[in-house]
């Protein structure tokens, strides 16, 4: 009787310890209803109800999907944003500002135009390097225009000042070009400057290749920042492929042959022949040789068939 009651209440989901405690208090011959009331009064709950009371860790999945919805992502975690396919941008602030100011004024507005151009394309990692002494009040020998733009870009964590100090009245300036090339090389990005950094190319052979392949030159046309559409020349990649980590190769388009069926170049012709889709593009001499070989081969087979017993 004890075992049968134990099995019955265990099937209902109650724990064995609670069942034994109730049976000891009420006796082995107690009715099932009394035992159930005593279990309820003690506050014992079936395991199924306890699991329902606990917050479920399972998540509903939409019909047709194979995996649950992604959870919240933490800061610094990689996300599938289109900006992830774009290369980091490192701007030579002094070169851009002096170019916009016609090499007479350090124009901070030129830096803002360059930053806005890359922002509109979707680049998220943009760094501008400027010497720290440009933060000082402008002088007659080094005029600065729109200096407040440097403060705004610094607040946005875009502008980085390269260190400089004064020793016995003389300014000691660190070489900002080395900062620019080093950061761009480590981030596998693009350098925006009209400087060729020849001294740094001779200093490090790895930097030499990187500067030759990742230097993006530019021009200012009526306060408009304009990089070239072919940064590495006419036969190089397009600007969009140059700025992206995964370049998209254009589909090869065949130009039809201007001579059409009268073309005598055969397989040496570089143009497209729609009539030669299902046959080898042989030259005229090769076609004549192939045609003369076919009847000769047929005649030899007939001779062999006649000579064979």
TrEMBL record:
GO terms for molecular function: hydrolase activity; mRNA binding; RNA endonuclease activity; zinc ion binding. It comes from the Eukaryota. Keywords: Endonuclease, Hydrolase, Magnesium, Metal-binding, Nuclease, Zinc, Zinc-finger. Residues 251-276 form the C3H1-type domain. InterPro entries: Rege-1_UBA-like, RNase_Zc3h12_NYN, ZC3H12/N4BP1_RNase_Reg, Znf_CCCH. GO terms for cellular component: cytoplasmic ribonucleoprotein granule; nucleus. A zinc finger (C3H1-type) spans 251-276. Belongs to the ZC3H12 family. This is ZC12D ribonuclease. The gene is Zc3h12d.
